[in-house]
Amino acid sequence: MDFRVAFPTLVAGRFLLAFAPLPVSLKDDHLLASPLTSYSRLQEGIYLFQNGIDPYSGGSFRHSPLLLSLFSTVVPLTRYTTPLLWTASDAIAAWALVRIWRLRQNVRESQRDGLIAALYLFNPYLFLSSLAFSTSTLENTLQLLSLMFASRGHSSASLLALAFHVQLSLPAILILLPVLLLNLSGPASHLALPRPFPANLRNTLPLLGEFVAYSLVLSCAATLACGNFAWIEKTWGASLLLPDLTPNPGLWWYFFTEMFDHFRPFFLMVFSVHLLMYVVPICIKFQHDLLYASFLLVGIFATFKAYPTLSDPGLFLSMMALFPETFPYFRHPIVTALLHIHASLLLPLFHSLWLTQGTGNANFFYASTLVFGMANGAALLDAIWAGLRIAVGEKKGYEVVQE
Amino acid sequence: MQLGWRSNLYFLLGLYFSQVLAANPAERFDEELTLRPLRDGKNPETLDNDDDPQHYTLFPLALGQILREYAVTELHLSLNAGNWNYDRWGYPDEPGVGTGAELWVWMGDGASATVDQRWQGLQGSLPNWTAPHQLRHATLPSEHVCTENLTPFLKLLPCKSLSGIASLLNPHRVFDADWHGLGVHVRYREDAGVEVRLAFQAVFDPIRSSPDKRRDWSLRSIFDRTVGKACPVARSSEIHVELPREQSYTLVPDPSVINDRHATYVLVDRHEALDVAMAWPGEPAFQYPLGSAATPLTHLSVQRTLKGSSQSDAKLSVIITNNLPVQIQTGYLETMPWLAQFYLHTLRVYSDGHSRDDLSSIVSYTPPEPHSRPALLQAVLTLPPSSTVQLTMDVWKPFLRYTEHPPDAQRGWDLPPAVLVPFSLGGGATLDQNASLAAAALRGPPRRIYTPVLLVDLATPDFSMPYNVIIMSCTLIALLFGSVFNLLTRKFVVVRIAGGATSDLT
Questions:
Q1: A137, A130 Cβ separation under 8 angstroms
Q2: Chain B contacts of A371, Cβ < 8 Å?
Q3: What ipTM is given for this predicted complex?
Q4: What is the value of pTM for the model shown?
Q5: What share of chain A has pLDDT > 70, as a percent?
Q6: Strand ranges for B108-210 from DSSP E
């Protein structure tokens, strides 16, 4: 179907969904909204802000002050503007994804555009989060915009989008390195023909400086909006210190619920350093295709982030559509798919059994998050293997293994 | 469970010991005991006054030292057990009847340490506190009252529990009461000196202990003791009995002073033991009155509940009924620990079913900080005449760490009572101006009302699992990390599979 027809149809479908009265209240669902992205907390923070109470003096509001000033002055959040805004954000993200695909394939348009847009707009992980008005939708949009501008070579726009993304969510800082390098190399696929990094590494330094400048300006704007520096500890500090132990589909919350106080600082440090560790090796190993490196890092952070929601692995799975050349080389796609189906059925079921019905306990939900972690990990391993394996090629009568 | 009013059977026992200090070494100590069958509202007698503490003959030394050190100008500490049922028992003589411990302190300016530091030093083991201005308020709803509280309380008295009215306080009987509470009130009066008032209130049920279900009572039947003699240093020592409306009762022995509302026994010059007894000889067994015809005993009736069966969200609902035919404006103070966090933007007010958000205006709100301080919500509510106003607010429940749960974690946590302070009757008029209106319907102006404590049920982790959780999570992370590490660092090898087992490296 022609993309110019398919895309508006898909977006219209999403608008209808957004305005449809859903019987289930998704807004506070722990799978779709974490303490950093929950819409109820955003509304509470805006209400306190508009009534002269510092929203960062308590522990419930953990959104960025930029969102606070945006939604209290420019765009008020009402029953009509919120679904519009969130669906528009998803539409922009889908459009950015399609543009990345086109830039990677180096075509003006292709047959798969509509399919890729549909894979983003109707991915259940993503559209349920959007219906829950979780601000992770906005974060995904900024992420895809940043990658899109980097693929086009518009480094300033790309770094600005990334700076906004970091203001909303601290773990995004780890995507900085591949985006910097992507700005210098191109999005075209070199997976099958690896080559060393084509540009001079020293050229990243001015880009890095530009990013730091944007971040400083945005941080100053946030401090001005908020009036003091309390937002730093409440928003960015939350990803490092894990003050709020609300359940989410990630691996941190139950681990740190059951942890004795003596060991908390050490393990918080371990978990944060663990996230940091993946950036450089993946960028080095995939220096020939930085877009693939960003894609893999998105997957890693979806699995190991402090406060993930379903939209983070949703982004990873939707971005997989950009790399169809790797599909034949997946090691165990059926296992991955089944694990994801398994986890996506168990997670809401056990969450409800524990908190709503009271017949299960926390272990049920914890076990389903472990399965979900395995599902994400399996998808990640598939993607890494395929990305490397494709470079080796086929030869009849031979098998390729690793030693 | 009996329906209807049991109030006829309960007796409000108010024991007031007031000790104040004199400019000249004559410190004054007064004690009095008030007994009344409930259903008659009556304000208790007020107490005496005096001057600066120079000597500590009668004034308790320990309390005086604390007050001096922290420059406290006024202190009210109450420790109560049970729920004061305003609908059945009316207003208490001492208004501080919130369940658990409650402390109000006014601290003076100009002391050496700051007010906050002095407050921290003063409150000791009471953890929840809020800080509006120089007034500090702390509340601990799950504090239990027992003999260990009564003994130091009695030690503050000059006669301890050896003579005087305080000798009646038999812990076995007193803590068996349906409701009991201790109070320490310290005030500095301009014309006099420091006034300390120690109050003990209790609500007894004589029918419970009577074999014939009769409501006859005596000091011996309630306390298992009689008053021996008055405290020698007491300037006045009296027992007041409020007389019931019906005339079919008997009261022995003969009181010193009697009118149609009160009987008073003066103990100061008595030499023999005194046992006051009231009986209803013509009544076989007490008939509980039916509740539907009962007139309200208080100006407002409050019900506060936490609705919802989920362990992640709840809804706080406060239903206030205005029993008067005039509008009442009341302050609403809610000290909510961080165990139940408000979504203030969801506060909705309904009056008789209609949405009336204009009836509440928020005066101040301090958001709660987990592990650190509770939320403080102060609002002014306007209650239309003879109506029911319902406030609802969404509440979310946090998830605690393993070490933060109490030993019996499934019981839940107590949430302190909310306080309603009516301050204005009619359209903008003050209480005094419309006191006649109030007096016509109920005796006296509206007073402070405490709601019962709530129990919030938080989600618990599995307490047997810390080791298992750590190893399973670490195993998964290590598995994924190891696999990613292997994939990134290993070389690819092309292996010939046709025929033999030789391998070629490429």
A1: yes
A2: none
A3: 0.94
A4: 0.87
A5: 99
A6: 129-130, 135-140, 179-188, 194-204
